[in-house]
Design brief:
- This protein has twelve helices and 18 strands.
- By secondary structure, the chain is of the alpha/beta class.
- The strands form four sheets. It has a nine-stranded mixed beta sheet with strand order 11-10-9-8-14-6-15-18-17, sandwiched between helices. A five-stranded mixed beta sheet has the order 2-1-3-4-5.
- Strand 8 (183-187), helix 8 (188-194) and strand 9 form a beta-alpha-beta unit.
- Helix 3 (78-84) runs parallel beside helix 4 (104-111).
- The longest helix has 12 residues, at 168-179.
């Protein structure tokens, strides 16, 4: 099962809105087939593992990171494929809460005489499927907020210089995190000030995450990197319902996502719900400070990743977070520390919220 979950994790960021599921088939103590969800439209992991196993699947044990599907979607039901292959036993990490499955896959297998066991490494599977599960239960994608900053919590000097506070090892780790998410999200201010590409570079990935910008009036530079590359890598602009996406952006490939507005900004909850409706399950937010603060204020950060560099920029530097309007410590949400590790001369810490991960 550990191998099946590991295979599934390879699909994170590439298979949305589907769950990233891995499958391993074992017969007589030997692995005879393995597979993982093939992109957004290809076969599920079970089918690919069965193809690899061939006749050896008969009488074998199948380990899969999520209940085999029982409905006709973009591909035929995996439960039927397992029954047809005459496997003897299916061990799944957890039941699929999707309403078209929700125990029906396991039931179909049992009715066909296949032994079914569930719950092996379920906690690990739930962490892997956190984004998929959150979209089903809350209607929004899981959010990872990344803050790269100095020791005193600054993301730029007083003059605005920010490249680069952290070193190459930390930046490479950030690219790997981007690759494991369906989308990379920034605020309009960051998009205008930094003119970022928000792509995964240096890792040889075949699929890029969607680039998402929250900007009430879609006020992005028409000659900026995001606008110029919208036809190559998707760009979605979350804007106010009364402020439609300019035709110039749409002509270059950008997609408008109308959202509610709160004050002067796009309402972050409305934006995430809209992204969930469009199928996103995992969003990687890279700021800026106002957007990060809005997400924290709304209780919408599920995972917080900090990259701290070994330098201080002082009170005149630009803070990593905008105002949170916190008067008492009890008002601040506390995250649980999940991981700490050095990255070159920097330190990465990963924090998780509640039971969401």
């Amino acid at each position: 099962m550990q191998l099946a979950l590991s295979l599934g994790r390879r699909g994170l960021g590439r298979v949305w809105p589907r769950p990233a599921v891995g499958c391993v088939i074992v017969r007589d103590g030997r692995i005879v087939g393995r597979g993982m969800t093939d992109g957004q439209t290809g076969p599920h992991g079970e089918v690919l593992a069965l193809r690899q196993a061939g006749a050896a699947a008969r009488g074998a044990t199948v380990y899969v990171g999520l209940e085999p599907c029982s409905h006709h979607g973009k591909v035929p039901p995996c439960a039927d494929a397992l029954i047809k292959a005459d496997v003897a036993r299916v061990v799944s990490a957890m039941e699929d809460p999707f309403h078209k499955v929700s125990g029906r896959g396991h039931a179909r297998l049992r009715e066909a005489g296949v032994t079914v066991e569930t719950g092996l490494m379920e906690a690990e599977a739930r962490r892997d499927h956190a984004g998929f599960l959150m979209r089903l239960t809350d209607g929004r994608p899981m959010v990872t907020l990344k803050l790269a900053m100095s020791l005193d919590g600054r993301i730029a000097t007083g003059s605005g210089e920010s490249q680069w506070i952290t070193g190459p090892e930390a930046r490479r780790a950030v690219h790997a995190m981007r690759a494991r998410h369906d989308a990379v999200m920034v605020g309009g201010g960051t998009a205008r000030a930094d003119d970022p590409s928000l792509t995964v570079r240096g890792l040889g990935v075949s699929a890029q995450p969607v680039r998402v910008v929250l900007s009430r009036r879609a006020g992005l530079p028409e000659d900026g990197v995001l606008a110029r590359t919208g036809a190559e890598v998707p760009v979605w602009v979350c804007h106010g319902r009364e402020d439609p996406l300019p035709e110039a952006f749409a002509a270059q490939g950008a997609v408008g996502v109308p959202c509610d507005v709160r004050g002067r900004y796009v309402d972050v909850r409305s934006a995430l719900m809209a992204l969930g409706e469009r199928g996103l399950t995992r969003v990687f937010c890279e700021g800026g400070g106002s957007l990060a603060a809005s997400l924290l204020q709304a209780g919408l950060v599920d995972e917080l990743v900090t990259m701290a560099a070994g330098l201080a920029l002082g009170a005149e530097g630009v803070p990593a977070l905008g105002a949170l309007e916190i008067a008492w410590l009890s008002e601040a949400e506390r995250f649980a520390l999940a991981e700490v590790r050095p990255l070159g001369g920097d330190v990465m810490a990963r924090w998780v919220r509640g039971r969401s991960l």
